[in-house]
Amino acid sequence: MSTTASRRKGRKSSGARARILKAADALFGELGFDAASTREIAQRSGVNKALIHYHFKNKEGLLASVLDEYYQALAATVLEALRAETGLRDRLDRLVDTYVDFLASNRNFNRIIQREASGGRYMDLVQAHTAPLFGVGTTLLKEHFPTTRSGEMAAAQLLVSFYGMVISYFTYSRLLGELMETDPMSPKNLAIRKLHLRRMIAIILESIEGGDADGD
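-> C-alpha cells emitted (216 positions)
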C-alpha cells in the first residue's frame, strides 16, 4: 500500500472512530448506557457495527473512551484555571466560570456521570477519573487554609458542597425551569448562576479565613 493510500485509510478510520464516539455520547446521554445498543450507535454514526468492536472492543470500552475524552477536557479546564498566576480568590472565580461553561457546553457529560455515579454498573470508571481532580482540590484548600484539614469545614466536605451547588443546577434544570419560570440554561441565567456561586464561595472563604485567624 502506498503512503498516500495508507494516510487516506488512517484518516477514514479516525473519522469513523470520531463519529462513533459522537453517536455514543448522544445515545448514552439520551437513553443511558444500558438502554443504548451498539446497533443504534452504529446506525446513528453511519458505520458498520463491526467497526465499533474494531475500535473499542465492546460497549464498555466505548463508554470508557467517551469518559476519557470528557475528563481529559475537564482536567485541562480545571488545571488551567487553578494554575493561573493570580490570587486564590481569582483562581477560584475562574474555576467557577470555566466549570459552569464546561457543563453548559457538554450536557450529556452530566447526564452520563449522574446515572453511573448514582448506582450505575460503571461507577468505578467515574471514580477513577474524579479522584485526581478531587485530590487537587482538597490539597489546594488544605495548603491555603489550615482549618480545612479536619472538622466540619474539612476540604472534602467543602468540595462536596461546591460540587452539589454546581451539578444540581444542571441535573435538575428542567424542574428548575418550571419552578423558576425561566430557562436556567439561558446565557443570562448562567451568568447569574456564576455570580451566585462566586458569592457563596466568597462567604465560605471569609468564614474559613476567620477561623484560621482565631486559631493563630
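The chain has ten helices and no strands.
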